[in-house]
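Re: Re: token formats

Sure, here are both.
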Amino acid sequence: MVYGESSTAMHVPLAFSWRGTLPEITCYGALAWVRGSKLWHQRGAGDQPYFLRSLAKPLQLRCWAGELEAFLTPQQQVLAVSSHNGEAQHLAVAQSMLAADEAHWLQTPACGPLSGAAVRETSWHHPCSGNHAGVLRLCKQRGWDLASYREEQHPFHQQSLAALAAGAGAFGGIKALATDGCGFSTPAFTLGAMAALYADFAARRDENGLWGNCGKFPSLLGGTGRLDSQIIRAGRGEVFAKEGADGLLALAVNSRRFPEGIGVVIKLAHGRDVSCMEALARTILSALGYHQGEKSEGLGPNFTVVSAIVPESL
């Protein structure tokens, strides 16, 4: 038996951790590759929709990136699309985005940093505080209501959701809406649609400074030990990465070889798994010609990745 060769189920084996001759841990999931505007490769999922979660942040705010550049610093722009760890560097930039008399508008749930450090829980520690602060600055600039900025009917969400649906193109629009943990609406798309959105983000990376600023300040996008920050460092300005809650990772590539843009989105069936996701990302990046560096320490078992996650034509 050759493990991981079937590609007909919604979730298929993507990686294994072996003990002796048997797989002790099997990571199931699905992924899609889009090159330009065409589906290039897919394993699992088919038309199954998934919520976009924090993968939405750079896709939404790029609609207003030109405006944001007028009143947010490059560091603030990165934090506005981040899902940060809640480190001191993140709190400092997030808090700089709102004046002291505006901070009360921030409605992210109070929590501690992702590190689990024992500190007083605040709204600023929430991974989405920079995103919310950036949206509040945009709302203030446009004269939109601040108190209702989290509500689905707010102009920010209506316009950004419409842009996402249009950007998915032939891959289909929004399949469902739900409320994310931060209180924002999160749309559901197929993995192909998500990958198409990131391929387009890659193809049009030079239309604003968001891509380049994330390359200059990758630690603000995630933080210490975070996979998306590590991937952006390894990508030499040609690769963007964004983690999403509960087992999502998006990659976007624009290089001399792929100027039309590549989008890759991975979904792990069992949710967040840093060890497995790093192994998958490492395999994909290596196939594209990028070296991520040494495996992060303390991430658990070593995984063998199913070769079929990469297109045969790559």
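Second one below.
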Amino acid sequence: MNRILLLVLFVWFIVVFSGCSHKSIQQAYWDAGTFVAHEEEKKGNIGEAEKELRIAVGRAKKELDDEKIASSLHNLGAFYRRQNRLSDAIHYLGEALKLEERVSGPTSVRTGRTLAELSASYLMEGNLFEGRPYAKRLEPLAKYYSGNEAMFVQKVLESYEIDTEKYNKIVAELKPLAKSGDPKAQYELAGIYFDGPDAKKIFPEIFALYEASANQGFAESQYYLGVLYDKGRGVAKDDSTARKWYRKAAESGHKIGQWNYAVFLIQGRGGPEKENEAWDWIKKSAAQGYPSAKRALMNH
């Protein structure tokens, strides 16, 4: 009832004061729906908030201009980030960014807001490799924000900062060990580089370190190669190759690798479905205490 009342009041206001243009009425509905979504989220009614935000996206695409579409996509993406639905957040914020850059320019305040949300989403995902370029673009725009918005932007940027002295020291320590063929050092150096300032530029070296380590049977590297191909980080997304590396990690006793391999088997990703075998791997993962595997067994 509250939602209907709000919508009616907004539309009535526009009808009375704007001459009742179709676009003005649609704008009023959009404003009301966006406001209701915000209020529902504050009250913890997450499902209702998501529904209103999705309605706003649909309305903007059908009835309004690119600026409102970009805002709608941004609002939905930011909502998903706050709900820790990071894949959804990154998808919608990426769409919002492409449109916002076209509408208001690559260095506008509005674009900066979407850059901040994207940077934060990748940060929460633990994926500094993909997030750092957005954070770098955000840096020169930080001065334009104030209040809570400025605090959020600053917190995001601080999370991407690198202690250069510490970084260089760790690299200097690990490099000789990695060069000598130590699989653990190769894995650790790859990880330091991957989260470092030049990861995109030196990705071939990063990948070579992971691969050299994985080929020696180091489970963490095998698992991480699976992740790279699964998520398409630095390489083309490839379910078949991701499945291969998850299997190797699973066979090496990596509990998350066992779980991910089981998921691929159940879903038939990168190869045939093998549900019976999948449950064997889920049991092994659960025995090592992996929460998702333990929950799956409880509900099976």
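The chain has a mean pLDDT of 92. The chain is about 80% helix and 0% strand.
- S.
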